Protein: GatB/YqeY domain-containing protein
Organism: Clostridium frigidicarnis
Amino acid sequence: MYLLTYTMLKENLKKDEIAAMKARDKARVSILRLVNADIKAFEVNERETISDEGIIKIIEKNIKQVKEALEYAKQLNNEEKIAEGNFAIEVLTPYLPAQLSDEEVNNMLKEIIANGNYASSDMGKIMKEIMPKVNGKFERSKINPMVKSLLS
């Protein structure tokens, strides 16, 4: 048997879920319950306590899924699903670290490229260097096009 130690983020998510239950906020409870279930599933499957970084990845994954569903709902012009998706993103976003702007990440990339003397074929090396700096603070899907535009 191992000792469970709670991370601050995990504790906050659980407290907020309980507060939402007491407030009878079914939509918020549903969203937080899904994230907490993903955290629990990770811990059961991996047999280890999840770190805050792991929780951030789970939250990012959930937000990505909601955004994909939002795109589909927008194509169908389903106002109810669009509102639900926006609400889910609104609920989950505060649990992520402060987000970096496009300009900040672009400047970081310019600095990495200048300091490393990277050529256009070194995209993988640049990605390896930038990812730890922006992990959880910037949408991953935006980085690749930014690197391509700077290398061209």
Summary: The mean pLDDT is 88. The chain has seven helices and no strands. The two ends are 54 Å apart (CA to CA). The chain has two domains: 8-95, 102-151.
